[in-house]
Every structure is written in structure tokens, then in C-alpha cells.
Amino acid sequence: MKYLFWCANEHLSFRIPEFEAISNIFGLDLIWVHKSSEDPWVILDFPNEDFVQKILSRSISVKYCIELWGDGNTYEELFKRVKSYPSEKVEKYASKNRSFKIYCEAFMKKLSYEERISIIDMYSFLPLKGQVKMKNPDDIYSHFEFSGFDHNNLPETPHNLFFGRCIGSGQRHLITKYSIKSRLFIGNTTMEPTLSLLMANLAKVSKGDLVLDPFVGTGSLILAASEFGGYSFGGDIDYLMMHARTRPSRVGQKKRKKEESMRGNFEQYQLEKYYGDIIVADNSRPPWREIPWFKAIIADPPYGIREPTEKIGTLRENVSISEEHLPQHYPSKISYDLSEIIDDLLNFAATHLELGGRIAFWYPVNREEYNKKKLPSNSSLKLCANCEQILSSHTSRRLLVFEKINNQGCHSENVKTDRVDNKFREHFFNANSLTKKERKERIKEYGHLNLSKDEPQNEEKMST
Prior knowledge:
Blueprint: E1 2-7, H1 15-26, E2 32-34, E3 41-45, H2 49-56, E4 62-72, H3 75-83, H4 87-91, E5 100-107, H5 113-121, E6 139-146, E7 160-169, H6 173-177, H7 193-202, E8 210-213, H8 220-227, E9 231-236, H9 239-242, H10 262-268, E10 275-280, E11 294-299, E12 310-312, E13 333-335, H11 338-352, E14 353-366, E15 377-378, E16 381-390, E17 395-404, E18 415-416, H12 424-432, H13 436-446
Parallel strand pairs: 5-6, 8-9, 8-11, 9-10, 11-14
Antiparallel strand pairs: 1-3, 1-4, 2-3, 4-7, 6-7, 12-13, 14-17, 15-18, 16-17
Helix pairs in contact: 7-8
């Protein structure tokens, strides 16, 4: 049976990996009828609605799903296919005791009241005998239209039309539930809820899993993980952040409230039973027991743009601290190179993840120099997803998702990270120093900003 999933037009590269991750969580086989990251819909063939409900119970990308009764490139073709849909499947929803309504939606276009009424009237051939009920009907039937991506130049008639019985909605209400605006404890770099929830899905966080964020910050990622039943732990080198003593990031707020804290966020959303704990920790010297006990690791490492990249250390030689000063001693910090951060993160995942567990983390890139072959890797980890979020004309960050496949990669010699991406911070600030005229000239000449001044020789520029 064919089911159409009508999806949100955002974070498009996350859509297919999310479907695949959710199907993996529930052990479902995906039979694609229409597989697309660009079109606002995908179509899957499932034996029954139970499979669909499992997808809907987790998906952030999906807005609605319908049992597809018909589709077409014209109204005539659509109605012909709807009329030919097996009558026994239609009749069981057509009794007088079942109320219904017909919902209409168009991509890149707002249908007027008159247009919606006109469309609904065209479905008068349906053998529905029940009462029309606009609020809480027994059944909802959905009509979707797609007219292309240029909302300034839409055709008179849609390119694609779909109709079917609505099965249910995805979990996009969670985006509002976890809105940063209403969250108790936030910071300057708090991850917005859509991406946090998508990361939890791509990391396959399930009920009872132990989850860690080694760069936890204000805990946006572990909060999303706990929404799906993960027991969350976190670490961060920022002592003030871990104790909620940083300056407030909300406009006009001078002092943090007493209840503002990571634990306060979990209590706000009644998730305190999933709150493991957080500690002040250095990613380069992880304090966690060296056994594979985490099912998922999710992280947004610092890039050196809005937050410093630091680790414990000193540039001085032969430094010793007297025993009497040790209890009050605060270790000094040194610069923590981005490539080192990724090396340590992958080594940590290879050591501490269970087999089949996943790590999902953000990796910043200069778009003109991006090459898939130069992504970090580890012999114990298999790359499962590589999703891009464009930040500007010259920079983006990619959510890299790896799954642990063996126990052989627990040593630094098994990690390979491209050192070229150390230039990310330098290129980021170089681009900001260019005038609008200089940007236009460079894009005209090279097709990009060419921040390295030399034409990059990449075989797979901007490949995914």
C-alpha cells in the first residue's frame, strides 16, 4: 500500500537519512516509490498503517502522511485514479456514522477560501455519507498540490496533485514545545530545537539508551535525546556554563534566575528522570570509564568563532605545583586545534560506543574547499549520513553521523582527519573582511570567494 509523506521545506539533506535512521530503530524495510530530498514529498510502500505510525512517532521532517488514493499531473488524471482506487478500501470509511473533512494545501502557494471550496466541491463523487465536521472529525482527507519552487512564477495549473486519507502527523509540534524563547536556561550558542531533534533521530536515540554530549554547553542536544527516552550525560570545559554562572544571553536580562540550570531545563519539560548528570570535563582528557557503554554520542564542538577552542595544558616546560596549592589550583588552558578536537572525538567514540551505536557531530567546512574524500574517518566507524547546513556563501557545517562497526579503531593511529580544515576560522574572518564589491568580483571570476587565492583542485567539490 502506498503512503505519501508530505514534508517540511527545510533541512532537506536531513530528510532521507532521518527516514533511514527511524526505519533502522524499528527494524522496518523501506520500499521507496518516490525518494527525493528536493520535492516536498516522498512515497513509501508499506504493508499497513502500523509501519507508518512508527515513522510518524519520531519524524521531525514529516508534516503529514496520507494513504495515497490517487495522484496525477492534471485534475482529470488525479480524479480518474481516485475513482479507480479499490472500492472496498473506500467503503469502510464511508458510513453515515463517520464524520469527515477535506483539507487542501499547496506548496509555495496559499490557497484562497474560494479556491479551497472549489477543490473540495470537485470531490463530490466520493461515496462519503457521513457528516462534514471541521473540528475533530473521524477522518480527514487531504489534497496536496505542487507547482514548482519559484513562488514568483507559478504556473496556472499544478505540476503534481495528490489525494488520500490522512493517517497522521509527524512530531513537528516538538519544535514549538522546545522553543528557545520559552526555555529556561539558554546561552549564546544554544542549538535550535529542529536540529537538536533531527540529531537525536539520526543518532538513533531510543528509550533506555545512554547518551553523551562531550561539549554539552546549555544541554540542547541531550534535552532532545531525552525527549525520545535517552538517559543523558554531558561534559564541558566551561566551568561557569556548567554551573549556570555565565552572563544571560536574553536581551535585557541582567542576572540569571536562581532556577536557571541544565537540571532546570529537564524539570521544565518533566524529563528529570532522564537526566544523568553533567560534569566539568576536558574532551582531550575524558574522565569516562574506557568501556563501550554509550549507545549514542551527539556533539556540536566549538569552531573558535563564537566559543573558544581550549583544552587543559601549558606552554611552559617542567611545570610543577606544590601539594599545598593543589586543592585550590585551576588548570591553565591552551589552544585546542579543530583537527585535534575531531581526532579526540572519533577516538572517544571508537572506545566508548557500543557496537551499532552512533556518533553525530557538526563539522565546519569552507564550501569552496569541501571534498568528501577528506572527511575525518576511523577504522571502527562507518559514515552513515553527511548532511549540510549552509551558513553563508562560503561556509557551511555538516552533520556527520558514524556507526560503530568493530572494536579495532580505539587508537589515534586509526583516526584520519584532514588538516586543511584548520583554516576554517581564518577563512571565516577573511570573508567577513571583504567588501560587497570584492565578493561580487571573486564570485564572478572563480564561482566562489576563493579565500585561499589559488583555485582549489578538488575532484569532488561540493559533492555530498
